[in-house]
From TrEMBL:
Entry-linked InterPro entries: Endo/exonu/phosph_ase_sf, Endo/exonuclease/phosphatase, GPI-anchor_lipid_remodeler
Any one GO MF annotation of this record: endonuclease activity
GO biological process: GPI anchor biosynthetic process
Organism: Solimonas terrae
Annotated keywords: Endonuclease, Exonuclease, Hydrolase, Nuclease
Organism ancestry: Bacteria, Pseudomonadati, Pseudomonadota, Gammaproteobacteria, Nevskiales
Keyword Heme (UniProt): no
TM spans (from-to): none
SUPFAM superfamilies: DNase I-like (SSF56219)
Record's protein name: Endonuclease/exonuclease/phosphatase family protein
Pfam family, one: Exo_endo_phos
Length: 251
């Protein structure tokens, strides 16, 4: 029988559409090298561009492929993209890169009104040697508390209807939870947060150069999480306005 894997590494990052803080510099190529250097097996990305006609003309070294494909390259054989915000020049959303097969994915629209277009990208990963399908949800919630309240409810409903109660589940991304109210709501769905469980507190992830706000999270269920880390030092401090988070996942 195939051995169960000892574990795999997760990374989550709001990519800021491939630009550094204040949009001063296009850093997607450097970002790809930094993500590669972490040897993550599953990568949750928020604010990743699918296309942008104006940037493609104006920005040197703009990739011919969508940003999520450029970042995946030959390292992450499978990827999924959930288009959320659509505008004249192009569109952006959430993406998931995986070294494991993605056997199914669906993007769930959780926009409230027309002010902010948001989605929950739900993927099912088949992890070789484990006999298990891992459910992964990439999250980027709204800036308004009232919107986040509704979106968290929709996330819990998604988990309740589409994720088996005994299946391993990972939920990661940018929750924009300024007031730290998401934990209590998500505990009702059986979720635990990696940094709270391992470090006793949520991770400070924004702004990346002086992390004060606890906006980015890694939640999980029916798994074990070890060694959660905040990546905010160089080179990460030059690659987005958010810090990246990583953790080891054991099934």
């Amino acid at each position: 029988m195939a051995r169960r894997p000892r574990g795999f590494k997760l990374l989550t990052l709001n990519t800021h559409k491939g630009f550094n803080s204040f949009n001063r510099r296009f850093v997607l190529h450097e970002l790809r090298e930094a993500v590669r250097g972490q040897s993550a097996d599953v990568v949750f990305l928020q604010e990743v561009l699918g296309s942008h006609a104006a940037h493609a003309v104006r920005v040197p070294a703009w990739p011919e492929r969508p940003q999520y494909e450029f970042l995946a390259d030959s390292i992450w054989q499978d990827f999924a993209y959930g288009r959320n915000a659509v505008y004249t020049e192009g569109h952006h959303g959430n993406a998931l890169l995986s070294k494991f097969p993605i056997v199914h994915y669906e993007n769930h629209d959780v926009s409230v009104g027309t002010h902010e277009e948001r989605g929950l990208l739900h993927c099912i990963l088949r992890v070789p040697g484990s006999g298990l399908d891992v459910h992964a949800v990439c999250v980027h919630l709204g800036l308004r508390e009232a919107h986040r309240r509704q979106q968290l409810q929709q996330l819990c409903e998604l988990i309740g209807t589409e994720v088996p109660s005994d299946a391993p589940l990972l939920v990661a991304g940018d929750f924009n939870d300024w007031w730290l109210r998401a934990n209590r709501r998500l505990q009702a769905c059986g979720l635990r947060e990696a940094f709270v469980e391992c470090r006793g507190h949520l991770a400070r992830s924004f702004p990346v150069r002086w992390p004060l706000l606890k906006l980015d999270r890694i939640y999980y269920r029916n798994a074990r999480i070890d060694n959660p880390q905040v990546l905010s030092a160089t080179p990460w401090s030059r690659l987005s306005d958010h810090a990246a988070l990583t953790a080891e996942v054991h099934l």
